Amino acid sequence: METQVIILILRVLLSLYGEDYNPKIDWFILTERSNEKIVFLGDFKNVDEIILCDNQSFNKCGFQNKQVILIKGQTQMLIQLDTYPFTVPDKFYVHTLANGRPTHFNGYPMRMGFIYDRIYQLEGGY
Q1: How do residues 9-66 score in pLDDT, each as one tens digit?
Q2: What is residue 79's three-state secondary structure?
Q3: d(Cα 74, Cα 12) in Å, to the nearest integer?
Q4: Could you tell me where the DSSP H helices lie in the chain?
Q5: How far apart are CA 73 and CA 63, in angstroms?
Q6: How far is CA 54 from CA 57, 61, 64, 77, 123, in A?
């Protein structure tokens, strides 16, 4: 029940301050240059950067794409998700950084061409 209340409050705040966050539908298909806005739920207390990477380990990234954070809270972030240069069916990893260092050993995997909820829990990848 507590999670549902948090998500409801988050949706209200996003509608007020989300800069064109438009949840007409609660999901989207992740495609090239779609620049979808997505809320990541997780522990972001000290996180100051979200990076997309082509490797599960941040230290082995061949390509890094820093994401634009529109709204940041301790338990959620609204991101303008820029997936360039990944294309369908590429897999990439979401890394959270605090002071330039990864907050977890492994990044969270996502795959191009898959359907994702606009409010998405980062779990299981760490």
Answers
A1: 777 776 666 655 555 778 899 999 778 889 999 989 899 999 999 999 999 999 999 9
A2: strand
A3: 17
A4: 2-17
A5: 27
A6: 9, 6, 7, 21, 18
What integer best gives the mean pLDDT of the chain?
86
Angle at 102 between CA 85 and CA 52, to 5 degrees: 10
Tokens of 53: 């990477």
Q: Work out whether strand 36-41 and strand 119-121 pair parallel, antiparallel, or are unpaired.
A: parallel
pLDDT tens digits, residue range 92-112? 999 999 999 999 989 999 999
Q: Are 116 and 92 in contact (CB under 8 A)?
A: no
> Is residue 18 helix, strand or coil?
coil
User: How confident is the model at residue 123, as a pLDDT?
Assistant: 74
Residue with tokens 């989207």: 28
CA-to-CA distance for 107 and 105, rounded, in angstroms?
7
How is domain 2-121 classified at the CATH fold level?
Answer: Immunoglobulin-like (2.60.40)
- Name the pTM for this structure: 0.79
The values of phi and psi at residue 37, to 5°, are: -95, 130
